[in-house]
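[Meeting: bench + compute handoff]

Bench side (C.D.) handed over the final construct sequence. Compute side (W.E.) agreed to return the predicted structure before the next meeting so the bench team could plan truncations. Sequence as handed over:
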Amino acid sequence: MKQKSAIIILVFLLVFCAECAMAQQQDGYRMVIDIPRYSLSLFNGVDPIKTYPIAIGKPSTPTPTGSYSIINKAVNPTWRPNSRNPVPPGPANPLGVRWMGFYRGYGIHGNNDSSSVGKSISLGCIRMYNYDVTELYSIVDIGTPVDVVYGDLLEAHEREAAVTAYRDIYSREKGYKDTIMEELRKIGLEEHIPQQKLDRLFSALNSRKVVFAKNWVLMINGEFLTSDTIYDRTMIFVNCDRLNEFFGINIEWNDEIATGRLMDRPVSAVWYMGKLYASIADVVPILGGRLTARGDIEELNYQINFAKLDGRFLTSDVGSFKENPTIDISLINPSKKGRVKLSALDGEGLRYNIHSKYGYIELFHNLP
């Protein structure tokens, strides 16, 4: 009888300890670096906080995968390369304005070349925009967990009937093409994509991520937005709900002119299956930015940096987005003139959040 009681107590303690360990894992900040997605995601427990774009190690000097933690931090670090003189803080320092070491000389840091973000270009460290790494540095402490993963290379968008395939940067996936075809079969896409388009998509995948879909796809700053599009051989129409949600705009049908309307300007639009679609070529001149097209893989890429105010589109006139964003203050306060840094908006009763992975800034009026 005593032996059974001891076993029951032991099982209880094991279960209790396991639950405690799980609770500790889910509590507090942690980071997940996903190599194929060039992203660093910050979590508070299981809740996602923000995702940042990053640069990673090139194939010859890959970023090490594994579970680590922040072991040291530095503001305006000095770079000490092997067999070279130290590089002091300043514009020539490739570590940028912040350093967070996580494993044997590898770290998360800023940079002095913002164009490197989104590339496999480093000696194994993680590079970020300086304003992103400054924000992250202020949130996480020494001991914060850092998981570096070579994430799943496929991402299904069931609502869109599309699959994003990420480039196998470090050549770790065996039979990758067969895996993609199996995923396309699973969601019923294989028979809807012509063989010629499939071949071109696979060719493009050697150097970049691609989206497999039967329709044209719309990417915003390189990130997938939608494949819910209509191509009529002269124009490409995009689901207005997707555009409205992302940009904070309102494309409406106007009975008077029998087409769409955005910011008091007409845009070509059509109704199809109970949904409104607008010509992306008409939307771009109104919002700003630049639209390019790759007809071989049926991909539109809309490059635009913009700001929202209280969730509504404000402007695409955002200066130096990758370095030190500025904005026309008269858009916020008509009594003032000139461009100001975002930090100056605090004096106007505003706070801001930079979503650099998706190329936009959220501005909010402070609550009383």
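W.E. noted at the follow-up: The chain is about 20% helix and 35% strand. C.D. will use this when planning the next construct.
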